User: What shape does this take?
Amino acid sequence: MSLKELTNEAFDAIHGIVVNNLIEKYGETINFFILDRLPIDTFTKLASLKQDNIPEMYAVMETLILNEVGIPIMSEEKILPVDILTECILKVSEFLGKSVG
Assistant: This one.
């Protein structure tokens, strides 16, 4: 297979991710979506993040956590609760780790 066949210029394939760890608190699963391929600038930022740089981590996560049609759900005005954001970060890391390996 040619590498050209594996590229996706539109970045239109999104994957649903389910957070089950917070069902007891919120009464149901929490669903969000992530692109199956990251733009190189987002990947580079994500790879170079330090755990103590919360503002930068939030800025990167703003671009990664999407709704069902691929639109970011977070912004400076729309902030997720810390427990949900933490679970989203873990799920994104898990998803990206599986896609690399």
Summary: The beta strands are 14-19, 30-35. The mean pLDDT is 81.
